[in-house]
Amino acid sequence: MKAKVYVTLKSGVLDPQGKAIQHSVGLLGYEGIADVRQGKYFEIALDAALDETRARETAEQLARDVLSNPVIEDFRVEVEG
Amino acid sequence: MKFGVIVFPGSNCDHDAYHVISKHVGQPVDFVWHRETDLSEYDAVIIPGGFSYGDYLRAGALARFSPVMASVKEFAARGRIVLGICNGFQILCESGLLPGALIRNKELHFICRHVNVRVETTSSPFTHELHTGQVLSLPVAHAEGNYVCDEETFEDLVREDRIVFRYCDPAGGLTEEANLNGSRDHIAGICSRGRNVLGLMPHPERACEDLLGSSDGSGIFSSLAATLADAR
């Protein structure tokens, strides 16, 4: 069982790193890049004994308690067998 | 009175804090390794600057799971003094002892220089010997000092007079240029509702000797020492 966790900045939170990337790709000649938001991606191997519901609960708890900061970030969890 | 300076793997301003307490405040002080859990002999705890856990995940995010932090939370809940400087401020926010978060500086750079901060309230154990509007020259050294919080939190901070320091120009003006890292409303330091927990990005412990370019930080430590002396 594997969980993928995507942590992204909340929409209202300024992303200076995303802005810098957007600026740089503009200088490189890329066109049509309206905005860039930077986030984090985690791959978590879960114990094979966990069923999908339990695996999802565990991954979501981990994402909420540790991997994201609820003040500034949102997260999304995907679980696959 | 006795001080404890918490040491995490990656703390690097712990000796500066220790030096100020032992030499300037002239009080006993211990280093407290992050695996310790007994803070009962201390009147005040300092969470120093540095790069705890290499700033992995987010600055301060992993330090909050160190055993000592559960004790620091209890210590703060009992009204004891907790001072978080730079990475210490980040750890206090991640721990929920202070609201909001510190994100990447507006211009992305690591900023290492002296800045001016204005004392916004003297109603705290850390600033009662200073005066409102007083401008202090203190060094900063951080990449994640850009203070953010939601509207509700911000309104609480203002209403409850919990913004303790703001970045300003040498005359005390809140110019955009003076707000070096892009913090919300120039916030450089805030205190808890109980006013016993202070977090700030500048380093007062590195500004207690003229030889280091400024001794403006000493007023914070003398305020703190006077508070603790009165409490005895």
Proportion of residues in extended strands of chain B: 15-25%
Residue fraction in strands of chain A: 25-35%
What structural class do helix, strand and pairing data of chain B support? Answer: alpha/beta
Mean pLDDT reading of chain B: 96
> What is the multimeric organization of the chains shown?
heterodimer
Please give a structural write-up.
- The complex is a heterodimer of chains A (81) and B (232).
- By secondary structure, chain A is an alpha+beta fold.
- Chain A has helices at residues 16-27, 52-67, and strands at 2-9, 39-45, 73-80.
- With 232 residues, chain B is of the alpha/beta class.
- Chain B is built from five helices and eleven strands; from the N terminus they run βαββαβαββββαβββα.
- In chain B, helix 1 crosses helix 5 (218-231).
Topology summary:
The complex is a heterodimer of chains A (81) and B (232).
Chain A: E1 2-9, H1 16-27, E2 39-45, H2 52-67, E3 73-80
Antiparallel strand pairs in A: 1-2, 1-3
Chain B: E1 3-7, H1 14-25, E2 29-33, E3 44-47, H2 67-77, E4 81-85, H3 87-95, E5 101-103, E6 111-119, E7 135-142, E8 146-148, H4 151-159, E9 163-168, E10 187-191, E11 197-200, H5 218-231
Parallel strand pairs in B: 1-2, 1-3, 3-4, 4-11
Antiparallel strand pairs in B: 5-8, 6-7, 6-9, 9-10, 10-11
Helix pairs in contact in B: 1-5
Task: Summarize, please.
The complex is a heterodimer of chains A (81) and B (232). By secondary structure, chain A is α+β, with helices and mostly antiparallel strands. Chain A has 2 helices and 3 strands, in the order E-H-E-H-E.
Q: What labels describe this entry?
A:
heterodimer, A: 81 residues, alpha+beta, three-stranded antiparallel β-sheet, 2 helices, 3 strands, 35% helix, elongated, B: 232 residues, alpha/beta, nine-stranded mixed β-sheet, two-stranded antiparallel sheet
